């Protein structure tokens, strides 16, 4: 029932013309629940999005927003969680697929890179062996052929002297080079989808720029669909075409990148952008901070998760406030965005006029 | 502030900086048996910081910015060089002589939760520095409650433990603890980088307000150039243990003179997709080298798009980039292409 108003309807018929338009990955009504001692934690709640070949979807959120849980759910990497909803990769349903089937798809059709490459690489194996293993598993190639492929991949991701470096261990690489190794490993079997979970957060800013450029180049060459998960709105602005803003496990707003930054529709998105110190801004006025902290998922509010921190709700009438606090807003279209906010349309102008 | 009679807060003469750092180096010894070479983490750093002002210290990991901060609060003793605080060289003071100085020099850390003792209540955490300085327990507790109020915490939470607070609140506790003894200089080492984006602005605003109210000087260490631009008056850019550019914030950010500063600024992603597409970026090659084996000459030369022969052999000195300008640059070719 929820959030069916996604612009890219995954239920498109599978005609030849339609398959051109069919998104590579489409996620519909994804809900991930972890049973805990303190009750169920709904880390992701009825989330829907789609990514096409050659395009980048940015998923933005703070800690506990559910962005990483979403990516792990797509990869089928949750154990002990209840995952409901649909995760379709090129029309094929992944949710509920047996582990063996998923194993065949992971690495081959979809791959993932993480924030900390050192903890994602095995310290006892050379990077060449680790990349080659993927190739052997998925293509049954011989050792020599797989190793040759590993060296090719290292060269492709810009590691100098790839033949020699393939024989080295992860600790012998710098942070940026390790992330290149991760990318080489992720792309060794030519997947169609790359999920990058904060891939540059642990890196220095000059190295971050290199890695983002590398991902963009490989994406263009291979027509990869990329899901870029990050807390950094600057990274999103640089790489994404479509952006999904998450808050408290739900979609707060979804829009094309230009629309989102030019005119954020959700008060949380607006608040995030307003609170950022920017290189291209004057430093005179105090930053417009969002009060409070991101919500706990253990004891979620019945209504809009952002309402306790929301300036629009604070400036609204008591009846509107009660509505925000008591009723979950659904994602609805609003001037080129999808926004889940009770106050986005009819009161936005009045409230903004009062506070800004 | 005293009411009525003195409208202006007393400002110390600008000629005497509160903190003056000269040619400071820090060499960490290598491992025994020569298996690893000594590392010169900080290599001849000099700067001044005036009372009530903020100097931003930026650079990438391993550039020596945190080591510099730790030497200033004297958690580390510099290998060579001098640190003059309020007219007195504190670089060689021993533990006992440092104790009264700890009142004046305080530190705020990156990760609020790991820098607060999980088994102590907030009352204990904030009051401890006061007890160390000889205040009575009842007075210290009262002062702790005041400090909680001042940093935007609820004083009724004084008997709670750190885990009961969010990251932003925990950082407020860290700031309250640093303020307890009435310091004049706070070294803040990445104070907002572990916090959620929506919370960072709260802490930046808090630190700015406290500076105005208490006349604090900050040495603000961060890798996030946008945050540093926001809070500081002057900025020093470090690369591999040295300051490569230092000057008034406006000049450094508007017209960076060192090729490294230029690359650093152009690498920061702007939260604006239209501006991002229009931007021309300088992408540096390679990674920052290890401080254990720094390159010859100008240590930036292997990654520098402008490097010439001289850069390989001769280390450039930090000097005024253009006549009359309050900005110094360590580059052989800095002045050449910057108006």
Look at the structure and give the mean pLDDT of chain A.
Answer: 88
Structure summary, number of beta strands of chain B: 12
Determine the fraction of residues in helical runs of chain B and give it as a percent range: 25-40%
The secondary-structure element order of chain B is EEEHEEHEHHHEHEHEEHHHHEE
List keywords for this structure.
heterodimer; A: 356 residues; alpha/beta; 8-stranded mixed sheet; 4-stranded antiparallel sheet; 12 strands; 37% helix; 21% strand; globular; disordered N terminus; disordered C terminus; B: 339 residues; Rossmann fold; 11 helices; 31% helix; P-loop_NTPase (chain B); AAA+_ATPase (chain B)
Provide an overview of this structure.
- The complex is a heterodimer of chains A (356) and B (339).
- Chain A is an alpha/beta fold and 356 residues long.
- Chain A has a domain of 72 residues.
- Chain A has 15 helices and twelve strands.
- In chain A, the strands form two sheets. Chain A has an eight-stranded mixed sheet with strand order 6-7-8-3-9-10-12-11, with helices on both faces. Chain A has a four-stranded antiparallel sheet with strand order 2-1-4-5.
- In chain A, strand 4 and strand 5 form a beta hairpin.
- The longest helix of chain A has 18 residues.
- Chain A is globular.
- Chain A starts with 15 loop residues before the first helix and ends with a helix.
- By secondary structure, chain B is of the alpha/beta class.
- Chain B has a domain of 233 residues: 3-Layer(aba) Sandwich (Rossmann fold).
- In chain B, the strands form two sheets. In chain B, strands 6-7-8-3-9-10-12-11 form an eight-stranded mixed sheet, with helices on both faces. Chain B has a four-stranded antiparallel sheet with strand order 2-1-4-5, with helices on one face.
- The longest helix of chain B has 18 residues.
- The radius of gyration of chain B is 21 Å and the shape is globular.
- Chain B starts with 18 loop residues before the first strand and ends in a 10-residue tail after the last strand.
- Chains A and B meet through helix 8, helix 9, helix 10, helix 11 and helix 12 of A and helix 5, helix 6, helix 7, helix 9 and helix 10 of B.
- Chain A: GO terms for molecular function: ATP binding.
- Chain A: It is found in: Cell membrane.
- Chain A: It holds the Pfam family ABC_tran.
